[in-house]
Fold:
Amino acid sequence: MSRARARARLAMAGFPKLAWQAGTIVPFADARVSVADRGLLFGESVYEVLPVTAGRVRWQAPHFARMREGAAAIGLEAPAWLDADAHWPAALVGAEGIDEGLLYLQLTGGAAPRAHLARATPELFAFAMPHAFPDAARRARGLLARCVPELRWHRRDLKTTMLLPSILGKRAALADGADEVLWLGADDHVLEGGSSNVAIVERGVVVTPPAGPERLPGITLAQLEQVAVRLGLTVRHEAIPRARLLAADEVFVLATSLLVMPVLRVDGTAIADGVAGPVALRLADALAAALASG
Ligand code: PLP
Structure:
């Protein structure tokens, strides 16, 4: 197939028009990683998803910091492109014409002859996609969640692209009519969602599982904690057994693409009276305002 035809086909299929690779913006159909790439062959790869609002990339510094830290943890050297104040993300988002959307970045191990311990030069690539962040009406409809025993590895604090367990968990949730999986660790503790962090509200106090290797240190959660303090709310980091979650006044999940999203039912059981809770909705409004100024 000619390049022009390949590009036309990708454009029609809803892919981005452009990608960024090693300092250059290229047509999406021309962006390449090798079939020998260690991210592809071994899952040696970390990624980030950043919010874009009013045409601006938000929360770049904490997302880039997490990618640099994740890269170091899996032995990849982070390129200078990941400096907190890099301008290329804004250039890519502008060229793609995204007003509201998501910027996807991946640092992948790079190409080397296939051997577990081979070393290669990591490659960074990115693309931007339109995305509608949930509005008040969407938040009021909330999500349904389903608990599934943990299937993933022991470094869930790293945002690697080894996402097959997440896909299987989300499929299991969907098969039960739910929108998101909630991972259950040892002793039936709820750790996080398939692509979100989780929090509950008890008598006005926000509780989320402790930071550590069991869950991702979500950027949305970190931003929410700052917003909560400004609103005078207390946030605690405590283990949340499934029974505590089901008995909570409110449950919500947090992620870049969702911001704050109420969970109305877990495993078919209504949380409180089964409607979006007031603390989650207040936090969602405040976080949306913080995002718009971030
Ligand atoms: N936990 C997991 C497993 C995720 O995949 C994600 C986001 O994709 C999150 C939490 C939320 O992280 P963030 O707020 O940085 O998007």
The radius of gyration is 20 Å. The pocket of pyridoxal-5'-phosphate is lined by residues 49, 192, 195-197, 216, 218-221, 254-256 (CB under 6 Å). The chain is about 30% helix and 25% strand. The mean pLDDT is 96.
